[in-house]
Amino acid sequence: MYCSKGFLSKTRSHDSFSYWVDDKSPVGPDQATAIKRLAKISLVKKLMKKWSVTQNLTFKEQLESGIRYFDLRVSSKPGEAGQEIYFIHGLFGIRVSDGLMEINTFLTHHPTEVVFLDFNHFYAMDKNHHVYLIGRIKEVFGSRLCTKECVENVTLNYLWEKKQQVLIFYHHPIYEENPILWPGNKMPAPWANTTSVHKLLQFLETTLGERAKHGTFHVSQAILTPRVKTIARHLIRGLKNTLVHRNLPLILNWVKSQKPGIMGVNIITSDFVELVDFAASVIALNDLLLEEGKSST
């Protein structure tokens, strides 16, 4: 979120909806054909679940812990009648409309809070699916939706005056037809795609140095991505026990060393945000902006 001195830092969860995925549902269309074939064996789906789940907290619990930016990947369910859309990460999660209503309930009880919903991956969706999803977004949030605006104009005071609480980023050309959808290029999220925490931290530093000074938000994806051989070697252990537990403290140390502002951190994402004081650490960075404001006056 922008303030008079620069971008406030916000906490974000990676694959925010993946606290629950259904290992009895079909494998999602985001997976390779070979995985779909293997998944006909029930044990394979149970193992997939260990690598598909990247959060333990529900939307409500994430919101209550301070998360305000949600990374959302969605899909229709092949073979299912109608236009229903589900969250997806290897396996299908809950219905998108149920997740949106959970978020809206939180906003009803917290009228000064603002959330960013980033719909950045779409699978097995034609235009009718998009029309249906956008309709549900409008129906659930109504006047809380913030229309497209110059990023620098969207201060907290601006949103509070308009009683707007939700910014929707939509990485599909249909955003052009809807003033309540922000284009995906306003939310760049460079991805390190590495299992090495040292390469990840180097990548985060490099991309912060290259970020745009004006006109966009910016996501620092502080996440490690397993490769096929990583999964093969640690099949039963899963993502949390293989990569996250031992590396998250190092990632948190990097977070604590950052500074928000025009060329600093803006939005930071992580897996299993409850394992360390991730949200509190990111939120605390905003105190540096307040101190800077006091010194300048």
How do the strands and helices of this protein lay out in sequence?
Elements: E1 2-3, E2 6-7, E3 10-13, H1 33-38, H2 42-52, H3 59-65, E4 69-76, E5 85-89, E6 91-95, H4 96-109, E7 115-123, H5 127-141, H6 156-162, E8 166-170, E9 181-183, H7 197-210, E10 219-221, H8 228-233, H9 238-256, E11 267-270, H10 278-284, H11 286-296
Parallel strand pairs: 3-4, 3-11, 4-7, 7-8, 8-9, 10-11
Antiparallel strand pairs: 1-2, 4-5, 5-6
Keywords:
TIM Barrel; 39% helix; 297 residues; two-stranded antiparallel ribbon; alpha/beta; 11 helices; 11 strands; 9-stranded mixed sheet
Could you explain the architecture of this structure?
With 297 residues, this protein is α/β, with parallel strands linked by helices. The chain has a single domain (2-296), classed as Alpha-Beta Barrel (TIM Barrel). The protein contains eleven helices and eleven strands. It has helices at 33-38, 42-52, 59-65, 96-109, 127-141, 156-162, 197-210, 228-233, 238-256, 278-284, 286-296, and strands spanning 2-3, 6-7, 10-13, 69-76, 85-89, 91-95, 115-123, 166-170, 181-183, 219-221, 267-270. Strands 3, 4, 5, 6, 7, 8, 9, 10 and 11 form a nine-stranded mixed sheet that branches. The chain has a two-stranded antiparallel ribbon with strand order 1-2. Strand 5 and strand 6 form a beta hairpin. Helix 4 runs parallel beside helix 5 (127-141). The two termini are 22 Å apart. The model is unreliable at 1-7 (pLDDT under 50).
